[in-house]
Amino acid sequence: MSSEARIQVRGLSKRYEVVGERAGLLSEAIVRRLRHPLRDRKESFWALQDVNLEVGLGEVLGIIGKNGAGKSTLLKVMSRITEPTRGEVELRGRLGSLLEVGTGFHPELTGRENVFLNGAILGMRKPEIQRQFDEIVDFAGIDRFLDTPVKRYSSGMYVRLAFAVAAHLSSEILVVDEVLAVGDIEFQKKCLGKMHSVASRAGRTVVFVSHNMNAVRDLCTRGVVLDAGRVVHDGDTVDALHCYVDLHQHRSTAPGVFILDERTNSDDQDGRLYLAKLVVEGSEGPTATLRTGRPAAITIHCEGLSDPDAVFARFHVRNELDEIVLASDTRMAGPDAEVSGQVVTFELEQLPLLPGRYFIDLGLGAKKTRAVLDQVSSAGTFEVSRDDQYGADYQQYPQDGSIYLAPRWRQGAGASAPPVTPRGG
Amino acid sequence: MTVSEEVARPERGQVFHLVIRPTGGWRSLDLREVWRYRGLLGAMTRRDITLRYRQTALGVVWVVLQPLLAAGILSFVFGSIAGFESDGVPYVVFAYTGVIGFNAFSGTLTFMSTCLVTNAALVSKVYFPRLILPLSQIGSKLVDFGVALVLYLVLNLAYGVGFHLSMLTLPVWMALAYGMALGLGLLTSAANVSYRDVGYVVPVVLPLLLYLAPVAYGVQEVPTDLRAAYNLNPLVGMINGFRWCLLGRGNLELGSTVYAIVFTVLIIVGGTLYFRAHERRFADVI
Question: What ipTM was reported for this prediction?
Answer without folding.
Answer: 0.82
